[in-house]
Amino acid sequence: MMKSDKVALVTASGKKRIGWHVANALAERGYALAIHYYHSASDANDTVAMFAQKGVHAFAYQADLTNEQEVHSLVANVLERFGRLDVLVNCAGVWESRTLEETTASDVRRHFDANALSSFLCGQQAGLAMVKQAEGGCIVNIGDWADVRPYQNYVAYFMSKGAVHSLTRCLAVELARRNPRVRVNCILPGPVQLPPEMSAEERREVINATLAKREGSPNNIAQAVLMLVDNDYIYGACLTVDGGRTIYAPE
Q: Which residue has the higher pLDDT, 40 or 106?
């Protein structure tokens, strides 16, 4: 199999959402790419073809990231094809609205599985592979700014994203104690890709709740990923990329 100098696995990068933009930024830095998808095979294949046209070595991998054996196979297959793994970015997750009265145990379990368990399984397997590499590696998780100031109707989501923050610190300690050149950090996005179904009024409210007074871009997250990959003295940090929304309390 073809070997590359630098290899990145980006979960949920088949569709043109945050993971796609992160993968694109890493490709521009010379990384070969493992493109992960769950259901969107057609989008993932289109993404791989797009990168191939740019001369980027990319390959698509399907996996249910809540399934331990599938994650084991995913990381093993990436290592077999590329020969190493330097960067993991955990972009997969779910974000569903439910009132407190409507939220069920099933809702909570689904969010924990998709947001926290998947990040743990990928981070565990990729991290232990990075530990064996002299150069180590870098893992970046995706949390959420509002864990510290939650808004209504997303209790299952925020519980699961709060666990990602704890997971980041735990993995940072566990992996760096095995190899100091393995680092784990987390990004806490704000409104960088608002859902298309959001009403114009809701969109205005979200934008006005930022200091930037504008919606961010997935590229803001990709830039933060590159910074955390580049800076080799950051361990266990949770970086807000939210236009100032965390610290701003509008009237």
A: 106
Domains of the chain: 7-241 (3.40.50.720)
Dihedral sign for Cα atoms in the order 197, 201, 207, 209: negative
Residue type for position 24 = N
Q: What single DSSP character describes residue 140? A: E
Distance CA 156, CA 112 (A): 8
Read off the pLDDT of residues 13-63 as tens digits, 9 standing for 90 and up. Answer: 999 999 999 999 999 999 999 999 999 899 999 999 999 999 999 999 999
Q: How many CB atoms lie within 10 A of CB 3?
A: 11
Phi, psi of 36 (to 5 degrees): -100, 145
| Strand spans (E) along the chain | 7-10, 32-37, 58-62, 87-90, 137-142, 182-189, 238-241
Residue 213 CA to residue 205 CA, distance in Å, equals 10
Nearest to 19 by CA among 47, 46, 42: 47
Q: Where do the H-state alpha helices sit in 55-154?
A: 68-82, 105-111, 118-131
Rounded Cα distance between 109 and 249, Å, is 31
Q: How many CB atoms lie within 10 A of CB 195?
A: 8
In sequence order, what are the residues at sequence separation of 6 or more whose Cβ sits closer than 8 angstroms to the Cβ of residue 204? none
Which residues fall within 8 angstroms of residue 13, CB to CB, at 6 or more apart?
19, 20, 22, 23, 33, 35, 36, 37, 44, 47, 91
